[in-house]
């Protein structure tokens, strides 16, 4: 058994790894909350608040994409650990599997639904009062996939801290 790694460079990479987790958690939480807000406003047949319309402006959700920094810095930490940790460790394999599930969920459901909502809510951005009929469905997909991704990110974080 090797001693746990030490040093400034390891600490910096660890902070970047944890920072990606924190930013991804915040971004996914915001996605879930905003999608839920869209659904509530649609049920009430009210006009979407400006803050919600602004959230769905066209473009990439770069804060959400920080999720991909998690394995990048995680593998860097493994390489810097001098044998203290290895890919064959169960908690590391489990964390990587959780990340893969989260990545598939975000790329397969969350962000495509978000992009569809960006297009569907265009009438609101242009001053119109109605949105496309599939807005509620896409908001639901976005809300559920963001919630599931959030659960995965929390589970992965618990696994990384516990290191069973």
How would you describe this structure in keywords?
164 residues, mainly alpha
Q: What is the CA-based Rg, rounded?
A: 19 Å
Number of DSSP E strands: 0
What's the helical proportion of residues?
over 70%
- Show unreliable segments: none
Q: DSSP helix count?
A: 6
Work out the strand percent.
under 5%
Query: Which oligomeric state applies?
Result: single chain
Question: Can you give the mean pLDDT?
Answer: 90
Detailed description of the structure:
The chain has 6 helices and no strands. By secondary structure, it is an all-alpha fold. The protein has one domain (8-162). Helix 1 (8-43) packs antiparallel against helix 3 (69-80) and helix 1 (8-43) runs antiparallel to helix 6 (135-162). The longest helix has 36 residues, at 8-43. The protein starts with 7 loop residues before the first helix and ends with a helix.
Topology of this protein?
Layout: H1 8-43, H2 50-55, H3 69-80, H4 90-120, H5 122-125, H6 135-162
Helix pairs in contact: 1-3, 1-6, 4-6
Short description:
This protein is mostly helical and 164 residues long.
